[in-house]
Amino acid sequence: VEMSTIAILGAGSMGKRITAQLALRGQTVRLYDRHPPDMVEVFTMLEEQATKGFYTVPEVKAAEIRVRAAQDVQDAVRGADIVVEVIIEDMAAKQALYREVCRHVTPRALITTCTMSLSISDLATAVTSPERFLGMRFLYPVLHIPDVEITSGRASHGRVLDMAQSWLLGMGMQAFFKAPGSAEFLRLSPVEVDRRQQGERSVGVSCNQKKRRGVL
Fold this sequence. Notes:
With 216 residues, the protein is an alpha/beta fold.
């Protein structure tokens, strides 16, 4: 199943970074936040990628076209293949949002959370068809970090986990699985973050240089 339309709910530091990462990797992203100015900042973040030479200007412009600031939750999730929730770490707030999402999202859509501290199984009780709910934590600082930690809940279906992994692999990203209820999270040291970012960036810069010379 092809998945390419993504709804990001929450335009804080992580939400903006995830939006930029996915748009640069070819995804169509609808970003929603109750504070509209936060959504605009993602475009500045994208433009910095061209300024720093990690992507060409045409690549960044194409990514910007893929991002749309949604008017509300319904506008963001209608027709989305994957919903990524990135709001405050509050059980009640997240569950209220999921109930609203489930009123508008398609039955086949995956619903995911970036939580680090809350139970996936408990959060899933607010989701219609909880088998499609899972944790999907993008590792900070997100840009140029290809690693994503996936956590299943008690109700998460294996097919849904496979779909999430295939989607990430299709973008050149890597899924790491965390056991339900485990207190251990995948964490990268500052040195490892720098190493992985440098690896991703060097590939991007090399490709951009070849494009300018007409090699690619």
